[in-house]
Amino acid sequence: MPGTWFGLEIAKRGTMAHRKAMDVTGHNIANASTPGYSRQEAVIKPTDPWTLPGLETRMLPGQLGTGSQVTEVRRIRDYYLDVQYRQSGSYEGYWEKKLDMAKRLETVFPEPEGRGIQDVMLNFFNDWQDLNNNPRDEGVVKAVMESGDELSAIFRQMHDQLTTIRDGIYVEGSQVIPGYTEVISGSIDYEVDKVNLLLKKIADISNAIVRVVQNDATPNDLLDERDNYLDELAKMGHIKVEINDDQTLKVYFIDETPGKEVIKIVGGQVVAAQVSVHRNNTDNEYYMFIDDDGNLQGTEPSINLTDMAEYNPAYPGSGQGSVLGLESARIENKAILDRLNNLAAAFITEVNNILAGVTDDNGNPAPVTFFEGTDASDIRLATIDTTQEKLLGQKAIDVARLRSTTVNIGGQSTLFESYYQGIVAQVGANVDHHSNMLENQQAIGQQIDALRQSVSGVSVDEELTRVIQFQYGYQASARMIAIQDEMLDYLINRIR
Fold first, then answer.
1. Where does the Flagellar basal body rod protein N-terminal domain lie (predicted)?
2. pTM given for the model
């Protein structure tokens, strides 16, 4: 039979269980507005009954209960929603960076409102048409020279602006490993620094979590903190997380291939590798190296960012994360810059070829070089003396006709204006496409986050209801203690 104090013990356990449940509920309410906080729940279960059945146990109609206890403080979290949320976040990070860079490119091309290359190009051809009509007019000759100088200047200006945007994405340093040049500055380098910082934080928190778990405790708040860092890391690249029962974990960043973990388990400890971006000097593609020994030699696992920057079914993480978004933006910027160089190079070649056929007053060849340079980076008006200026009118109509003549620009037969309009259209289409994709991903992310909050988020109204429930349970248990005390007092002090 239970002892005299059996009832007091049951009531005491009831007060302790309900008090702890109220503490957990109070913790939820205090963190109702904390980003990334997961609702916690005190799991109350009955304690072992009196007594456990055995061979020598007297058979009774039922076992006598001994009260209740909080067996664990459970964190309410849906792992599968976390996976979906991180995947959505990685796509969002990808399109955010692409849209940001596309908008910067758009500012370089002021059409149709501003005065860009198209207006200057039209003015250039019109001035040559005027020169054909007035070949000896010094004023018209000066106008041709000025329009050529303006066209050269705007080519160089736009090239400088595109180069500045490119340098904002990446700046290369020296060769630190054979065959590769390190990226030392720009947005890509900044994102990689953030990745490295997050990896270290995740590794440190994971080791703290493992120690707590080894002491048979549940580190709910630390788990929330680690999940928040994983959510943030997912925006920078596709991640795959493998979590073991002891809360050690492996994290694959961008590439899920075994052996390319950025966080791994070594000797029971969770350790983080250092990642860095380099350009291969042979194929001019960019790679991310995973250095886990602090001695980068080029033998570490590497990931081809250029191949993965656009969607490729062969790579699970392709087209996801801000790092790949920046690499994709770099590729788009290079394509626009190459097309601008092709346009400038065609202008230099076509105009100079026509003016190479100029002759002097005696019919002798007197070729004139109108443009100097090779592309948009260095195109400029050549030095033309007074005598050569008087000869420009001979070929003025041929230069003017270039506006409606199909020429070879970058291996493509087209008109100057059409080629430039294609550049502008591509820039505008990129902005529109990236904006739409980002809006779609944000809508998907918001929907998944709403589902996740419905599971893990704190409802103040629900928690207040629980407070009242646990309060009544606590008061009832306390009342049982008072009743037991009165009964024992009567038994001990009043019976004679």
1. 8-37
2. 0.90
